[in-house]
Every structure is written in structure tokens, then in C-alpha cells.
Write a structure and sequence with these properties.
2 helices, Jelly Rolls, six-stranded antiparallel sheet, mainly beta, single chain
Length: 243
């Protein structure tokens, strides 16, 4: 009986051995593979690659070459419907601005940029003054305290105050200047009636300014014509960087 069992086992072994090539064509499973000392593939093609924690060093590292994915990439998700889909936070390390920022997202100094413009989250920059200031000049000059140098970019600008003429039959002009150049459409004019001198009226403007240089000052200037003098009361200049 024992001899018969041994013979049967030997026959089964022969069948498996002789047909091993046929079986291997159906299924190939590699549970652990560690090339020694390290592996290098010219090209690895796969319908799906899973990176988990079921083997030592559970990560894929691409150092001095390219990793190209023709389909979609999902991180932290089991299904990716877009070219890149991330379920969770993204840490975007700081870098320098590229020579050509077109269609590029990058982090410079902790600020996020797209197409060369800062994205959202820009805090307002403000200059404010509570003390009266005066002028009797017929040429544009700085309204005291109304100057900001925010750096290169595009800006929304708001200004508000109140002004009054101390004589009569005079014109008071208030206008925005950027880098020493007048922004004509922001000019505001007030005529002081001789019958009602020393009467304060509100003055305000807003503007979208593009291409401000790194050293350009954004300022409010004013003047008075007619030989009289003018007073500007509490005033605020506010700017916000925008795309």
C-alpha cells in the first residue's frame, strides 16, 4: 500500500513538471522581488501600479529621469477622474519664479502664483492720516501721508477723504499717481463757491492699476487753482494686489 502511494505521488509530480510551462503561461505571481544590488528597467509597462505598505520601502522614487503617465493619477483615492486627483492636502515647496510663468503654478516665499500673478489671500495695504493737511500750490504735490510702495504687480486702489477751499472761486483737484505718472481717469475736481467757503465735501476714487513696478509708489496728489488755499481732512488710501 505504501509503495502504491509513492508511485501515485511520483506520477503526479511528473505531470506537474512536464506541464509547468503550460501553467506558467496562465498565471505568474511575484510576491517579493529584490534585484541585487538594485534593479533598473528601461521600460516598465503596466495597466495599474499599486504602491502600498506590503513591502520594504513602500514608495516609488524618480530622481534624475522622467516619470510619464499617459492616463490619470490618483493620490489618496481609489479612482481618478481627472489627469491628477488628490484627496488631501498638498505641500508645494518653495522655489524661484520661472523665466516663463505661463500656465505654471509655483510657491515663491510662501506665496502662491499662477501665470506670474499672486493668487488670492492678499492682505490690503493701507495708508491713513487723521490730521488735516493743506495746500496752496497750483501744481500737483503729494497729499501728506498718502503714499504706498507695494512692489510689482496689479492693484485695486481706493481713496477717500473730504476737502474744502478756504477762499472762493477756486478749483481743487485730487488725482492718483503711480511711479510719478498721473492716472488721468482718477482726477476729481471741486469748485469752491465764494458764498460758501470753508465747506467740506467728500472726494473719492477707485482704480484698477496694472504693471506697477517694483519701486513704483502709488500716491494721491492734489492742487488748487485761483490763488486760494485748500484743506484735506481725514483720509485713507487702500490697495489690494490682484491677478
Amino acid at each position: 500500500m505504501r509503495y502504491a502511494v509513492r508511485c501515485l505521488g511520483f506520477v503526479i509530480f511528473l505531470i506537474l513538471f512536464l506541464n509547468s510551462s503550460g501553467f506558467s503561461q496562465e498565471t505568474l505571481t511575484i510576491t517579493t522581488y529584490y534585484p541585487s544590488p538594485r534593479g533598473s528597467y528601461k521600460e516598465l509597462t503596466s495597466h495599474r501600479m499599486k504602491i502600498g505598505t506590503n513591502y520594504s520601502g513602500s514608495g516609488t522614487s524618480v530622481t534624475d529621469d522622467n516619470l510619464i503617465v499617459e492616463g490619470t493619477v490618483g493620490i489618496g483615492t481609489t479612482e481618478a477622474n481627472e489627469k491628477l486627483e488628490v484627496a488631501g492636502r498638498i505641500l508645494l515647496g518653495q522655489t524661484t519664479a520661472p523665466g516663463d510663468p505661463t500656465d505654471r503654478l509655483y510657491n515663491v516665499g510662501g506665496n502662491l502664483y499662477w501665470n506670474g500673478s499672486a493668487l488670492g489671500g492678499s492682505a490690503p495695504n493701507q495708508a491713513a492720516a487723521t490730521s488735516d493737511t493743506g495746500t496752496s500750490s497750483g501744481s500737483y504735490g503729494l497729499a501728506s501721508g498718502m503714499t504706498l510702495t507695494p512692489g510689482a504687480g496689479n492693484y485695486m486702489v481706493w481713496f477717500s477723504s473730504s476737502i474744502e477751499g478756504n477762499g472762493g472761486n477756486d478749483y481743487i483737484y485730487v488725482c492718483l499717481f503711480v511711479g510719478g505718472v498721473q492716472v488721468a481717469h482718477t482726477e476729481r475736481r471741486h469748485y469752491t463757491e465764494s458764498s460758501i467757503p470753508n465747506t467740506a465735501v467728500p472726494v473719492a476714487f477707485q482704480a484698477y492699476i496694472t504693471g506697477v513696478g517694483a519701486t513704483d509708489a502709488i500716491e494721491v496728489h492734489w492742487l488748487i487753482t485761483g490763488g486760494g488755499s485748500a484743506t484735506m481732512h481725514q483720509r485713507t488710501l487702500t490697495i489690494v494686489k490682484v491677478p
